[in-house]
Structures
1.
Amino acid sequence: MLSRSAQGIYWMGRYLERAQRLSRLLAVETEALVDRPVEEIYFGWRRIYTSMSLQPPGGSLELDEDDDFTLADSYTLADDLTFEPSNFGSVWSCFALGRENARQMRHCISAEMWTSLNLAYLRIQRLGMADIWAASPESFYASVVTDINTFSGVAAATMYRDDGWRFMQLGHLIERAQLSTALLLAQIDDGTTLDEDWTSLLRVCNALEAYNRRHGVEVHPERVLDLLVADPMLPNSLRRSLDAAVSELAELSSGPDADSTAAVRRLAGRLSAFVHSEWPDREDHEESLRQVSDYSRELHNLVSATYFDYDAVI
């Protein structure tokens, strides 16, 4: 596969995974605006911006003692994260970038995939913050998640299982690993011990029902972390994402440099083994997650150097 095609499909997967995760965060956050305490609302916004390494409009999300403007601020923050074109991490920007990569790589994806993604993009393009805020913003974000899930289902049903499929999956999985570690670190760094904050984290990760089945309704932060990081049965757990990345890299054709290809596979295996064997015995979960975050970024850099940005051999 041409490096340009591989890179385009890889980044399509990353951008759509990013748009989906942000939409889930915003769905939970805007739903909390109805009846949750102001402190909890501010925590939610801080968690989003910290996990994305972005500065909010105004530069601070510290809560004043007599803050009567939370709803107005929430509108501004939601607009920045949803429709702001200058914010390359916004839902609109990620969807637009994912769709543009798909447009350029239409020869590598199925016609049904392009139709599904393009229709979803056109629907979002016609909207603005005022349109979704007046009714039910959380419903809009849920519909974006549904659109991306639909695209993933169409891809699974129609895309040829060649290296293009594997690069798309690899983009999804590496993005998910980076986003998950960033989100968990933002949760830990804030120092929250409120059950509601940890419950909302489970909801963002589609893990609340799984947690309740395993541990009951009482929320313990340590158990939440163990579930989201190391559970082999949870679809979006860090362990499952890394295991899947190892599998995709094993099936992927070698890059031009055999040593670089081997290095990518070794690093992915090291990451997966860390979550399998070392996480349960670690007491400093924050440091462990920072280590996984560093390795995940290194894995992306190695994938790029091995398959996309290598020197041509003449």
Note: DSSP finds 14 helices and no strands in the chain.
2.
Amino acid sequence: MCWHVLGAGSLGSLWATRLAREGLPVRLILRDEARLAAYNAHAGLALDENGQRQTFAIAAQTVSADEPIRRLLVACKAYDAERAVAAVAHRLTDKADVLLLQNGLGSQEAVAAMIPHARCIFVSSTEGAYRDEDWSVVFAGQGSNWLGDTPHGAAPAWLEDLKQAVIPHQWTADIAERLWRKLALNCAINPLTVLHQCRNGELLAHAEEVTALCAELARVLQRCGQPGAADGLLEQVQQVIAATAGNYSSMYQDVAQGRRTEIRYLLGHVCATADALDCPAPMLNQLRLRLIEHLNAQGLPSD
């Protein structure tokens, strides 16, 4: 069965090239004829792994193509997910599998509500990748991918494709805990790197702020029924800061390159959840307002 990949960014390209490398059928879905022409002129998608570069002649099509979709990987940004899936929803077969590989929370539920006939599977990834040029991705950091669906269904047979493609993965009965944990990690690190204009490791100079923020995040996670995501949060945040000390966070890179951030699905989501649960979160709300002010000063969207 063909893997259709919607969103040829860093993670979408990383998945597509590894699947194609093992001879598995893959189709890139691009937004319009102009992008399709640019891709076809480039003659493939390149993967740089451990200093070795390979190019794969993966077939591509636009969202308006008529080929039915039985398995779809949605790898675009959280703020683009609803619009992107809406453009191909008519092509999804009955009981299609749709993998949602977005940061934060909120977009996954919105997409699932749009396509009730499909099986939506949420993915939480800790793999690192970036595009060094158009149609080229660099595999920058080993990690894993946790997959699961909210009805707690059985693991699908096509996980064998991921095993064959050496895409590290684990099926989990509680994907919500993984997604909340990653959201909390992102909220504790990414906004501070933007506001302090620093690499991850430089947050060591702001240890008190990080510690207080993690304590508040843990309280919100406990209140919303995610004690597993709250447990040991500060320790893991400190581990991530140490392990990625020389890196710039994804949000830092978005702001530096004049791109929209996913604030709505990170700080926005956790602050809205805290408010709905009547759980005081003054630091998180203040951090969100500071980040909004910073984004507005840069002329960037803050929603």
Note: Residues 177-297 form a domain with the N-(1-d-carboxylethyl)-l-norvaline Dehydrogenase; domain 2 fold (CATH 1.10.1040.10).
3.
Amino acid sequence: MKVWSWLLAVTSARESATVLALFRIGMGLSTLLTVGTVVVTGLVPILWVDRADGGMRQLVDPSWLVQALGGPHPHVIYPLVGLSLLCGALMVLGVGGRLTALLALLATSAVTDVNNHAGGSYDILLANGLWLVVLAGGDQTLSVTARLRTGRWWPLVEAWSVPRWLALWQLVLMYCTTGLQKLSAYWVPGGEASALYYILQQPEWHRHDMSWMAPWFWTTQIATTVTWLWEVGAPIWLLAVWYAYTPERGGALRAWFSRLHVRGAFAAIGVMVHLIILVTMEVGPFSVLSVSYYVVTASSAEWERWLRRPA
């Protein structure tokens, strides 16, 4: 009965809706970036349209929605692209709630899944984030909807907190499993730690010629080791967030985590890692999308204090 009571309390918890509103905005911006970059670069008819209509290859296994609508042809793909962009913008504005997020999920997944030679694991990360927005809603505050309902852009309202913890779990799971898949001498401490250097020398990954880094090979070894340790240590980040969320419980370990700013250190390393990736590597919207998840590592109360929400 104690376990059941604890589980009921955890799954029923509520908190200020600010953090979920920020997450909704982040997922909306990530949707616009993911689909918008393909539109701006003129690659929609090449990547997401079948070869019979001018695309790069025959798309024999398109997403179920594209199949249901008639196949990966322009009259199907372009409306889906438009719907994805529209819903992404509406999510940023906070219009339409769960329905907008669901339509964004369906349209975006339909086009990003249509060609398995064009995309990456970040498409799945975005889809999972959109599912969480469907679950959470997130338009109760920091939204046009809130403005119309209450006359205020940022009303103080509560929301179900479980989606926030699920988003945090997704973030930690992504990093930890990524690190565990890098069990080679090129990554793990004690090996060559040369993984990042060789990645930066491959034209399909780097944004610019990085051969100038040869004399600075040792710096990439440090970066490789720090990145790997940070990734596999991601569960510590989850624990740090929990400790920060429950300071009233006390304990020596919780006090040490607070004193060493473990939660902030993990976030700072992550931002630096993704900033370097963004500047040096061509990996699509991965960095912006990943950092969008970081908003859930802080509570709504903290965000309201940092953003100086008016009383």
Note: Residues 13-160 form one domain.
4.
Amino acid sequence: MDTRVKAVELRELWRACKEDGDERARERLVVAYSPLVKFVAGRMAAGLPSHVDEGDLISYGLLGLIGAIARYDLEREIKFETFAVSRIKGAIIDELRSLDWVPRSVRSKAREVERTHSQLENRLGRAPSEEEMAETLGVGVDDFRATLLEISNSSILALDDLWTVADPDGGQISLLDTIRDPNAVDPEREMDAAEFKDRLAGAIEELPERERLVIALYYYENLTLREIGEVLGVTESRVSQLHTKAVLGMRGHLSNHRDD
């Protein structure tokens, strides 16, 4: 958020926007929260092909921010920033997918890797190694790693996607956005959220040690892929491969245990 906008002024802008329908207040809120769009777009651009322009991502993200301001409920037990980041990212992803810039062959490879991981995990009772994945796919380990890098460089693949759920209005919200007022708890929804967190924790626990470390450093410590590479003593490309394998593996694990 733009720190030049004081908290008191911000509250007044929200009141004017929501209660009075003041368009000027809405525009000022967009300006105040626009740094969020730049932050999200910058982070996403770092993992996308060079031909994807960050300026375009910012434009897509601004639409998400505007939508977030329109839909945000001041009574919700969640900070606007948390709500908005999910909307901004969703708007960027939706626009990129609508442009269909990811080759179908890459999408197909990602599905095949995910499916193979799921099958091997079922058979072995643990997460498969790269060597086992490569053998099952009928390729060499180097070729398998090249495939992971191709998927990573050509698609929007992030652990955050595992936490998205369908919005009744057709959009996307993060699991965090389902938190409700403590005085109006929906037990069924809380149970579903708790079960999903348990399943996700189980999926992370099943990952090989190095992949678990990549997930922890990237999502919990907010290190970049390059910084993680320095910690592990490997190249940034190798970290990208490990991250991609981890996320596809977790998706396969969650698919395996969907009905558990």
Note: The chain has two domains: 7-101, 104-159+184-256.
